[in-house]
Amino acid sequence: MELRGITAGYERGAPVLREVSLTVGAGEAVGLLGPSGCGKSTLARVAALLHRPYAGTVLLDGEPARGWRHRAPRAQRTSVGVVFQQPRLAADPRLTLAALIAEPLRATGRKDEAGERTAELAESVGLGGELLTRRPHEVSDGQLQRACVARALVLGPRLLICDEMTAMLDASTTAALVAVVEEYRARSGAALLAVGHDRTLLERWCDRTVEHAAVQAPTTGKDATGTDATAAATGTDAGAQVGGAPVRSGRRAPADTSAG
Ligand SMILES: Nc1ncnc2c1ncn2[C@@H]1O[C@H](COP(=O)(O)OP(=O)(O)OP(=O)(O)O)[C@@H](O)[C@H]1O
């Protein structure tokens, strides 16, 4: 996954991301660190094709993104799995945990695989039996996040984006979910972009860490195009630039990826 010169914001307002460039290589695990509000989740959503940037290009497997959200081509959309920080906002409250895990298969016409894949993934994240028949309001945050991790893996993504996946979890649930992601990556060769504030966790988990401030152009009072933010908010990929400061890498993680 490659972000090239991404400038992004909300409602045509001032950019939150300015000319961000970041590459996650095939099979690589990159941790993105930065203070609250700096734009990490925005970057994660752009990389997952869930938020359309003002300018710049997202490449998946070398192919530029050709749409955002439901307009993204299915092959690109399904090549990325996302786990968000707050499972209660991400999960449809009407679905049982089993249906939640299986939903991406049903949505992509693969419902025949739902039974087997759901059981397999539910077991891998430590869910089973009667728990799978409950709805989000009937389970704990940790149990719901386990289901959301299973759901993110159900289509076999080549890139997994974990946006503060463990922020509201205890140490043992954190360790268990990191282990599930790592087991999936070891088996599939998938890449990982893990976003968060927990330096210790991300340095342990990832091959390298990157500071948010190091992947975007410095603030100048102007946006990436040198004009005001409104003029930049074209909503197109036109004018994409390869920009941003060089990536600053952290230390490589040891083989042990357990957390907590
Ligand atoms: N839907 C939205 N509409 C308007 N502004 C938003 C929206 N989502 C985020 N923002 C703003 O964009 C900026 C970056 O937010 P973002 O959530 O990307 O930061 P973050 O680094 O992930 O923060 P945190 O670590 O606290 O989760 C913030 O100033 C935030 O208020």
Automatic annotation (TrEMBL):
<feature type="compositionally biased region" description="Low complexity">
    <location>
        <begin position="217"/>
        <end position="245"/>
    </location>
</feature>
<protein>
    <submittedName>
        <fullName>ATP-binding cassette domain-containing protein</fullName>
    </submittedName>
</protein>
<keyword id="KW-0547">Nucleotide-binding</keyword>
<keyword id="KW-0067">ATP-binding</keyword>
<feature type="domain" description="ABC transporter">
    <location>
        <begin position="1"/>
        <end position="239"/>
    </location>
</feature>
<dbReference type="InterPro" id="IPR003439">
    <property type="entry name" value="ABC_transporter-like_ATP-bd"/>
</dbReference>
<dbReference type="Pfam" id="PF00005">
    <property type="entry name" value="ABC_tran"/>
</dbReference>
<feature type="region of interest" description="Disordered">
    <location>
        <begin position="217"/>
        <end position="260"/>
    </location>
</feature>
<keyword id="KW-0813">Transport</keyword>
<comment type="similarity">
    <text>Belongs to the ABC transporter superfamily.</text>
</comment>
<dbReference type="InterPro" id="IPR050319">
    <property type="entry name" value="ABC_transp_ATP-bind"/>
</dbReference>
<dbReference type="InterPro" id="IPR027417">
    <property type="entry name" value="P-loop_NTPase"/>
</dbReference>
<dbReference type="InterPro" id="IPR003593">
    <property type="entry name" value="AAA+_ATPase"/>
</dbReference>
<dbReference type="GO" id="GO:0005524">
    <property type="term" value="F:ATP binding"/>
</dbReference>
